[in-house]
Amino acid sequence: MEKYKNIKNFEQLIEADHGKIGTESRNSYEEKSQMFIISKMLKDARKEANITQEQLAEKTGTKKSYISRIENGKGNIQLSTLIRIFEIGLNKRIGLTFL
């Protein structure tokens, strides 16, 4: 695979596969990656709290299907809802970092 010949770090690998930062392909990749991370963190935190999707939905005023979609990386989520799910539903703090 010629396009991987001179790759020396992860950023170069991502750029080879998805383009430079700011391109449509790269933006789509970054969005999907972040959604995967959020979905994994939510599922892990919910299981750690030993509650069901339905119980979490009840605590946070959402629906079980909404929690399920987020955990499966299928749903759009508003920041205020994400904060409510983690902080009220799971008793976890959220910190945001902008790079």
UniProtKB/TrEMBL annotation:
Where do the HTH cro/C1-type domain residues begin and end? 42-85
A Pfam family that the UniProt record links to this protein: HTH_3
Highest taxon of source? Bacteria
Spell out the InterPro entries in the cross-references.
Answer: Cro/C1-type_HTH (IPR001387), Lambda_DNA-bd_dom_sf (IPR010982), TransReg_Diox_bact_type (IPR050807)
- Tell me if Ribonucleoprotein is a UniProt keyword of this record: no
Query: Record's SUPFAM superfamilies?
Result: lambda repressor-like DNA-binding domains
Gene3D superfamilies, per this entry? lambda repressor-like DNA-binding domains
Print the keywords alphabetically.
Answer: DNA-binding
Task: Select a single GO molecular function from the record's annotations and give it.
Answer: DNA binding
Question: SMART domains, per this entry?
Answer: HTH_XRE
Family annotation (CDD domains): HTH_XRE (cd00093)
Annotated Gene Ontology cellular components are: cytosol
This chain belongs to the protein called: Helix-turn-helix
The lineage, from the top, is: Bacteria, Pseudomonadati, Bacteroidota, Flavobacteriia, Flavobacteriales
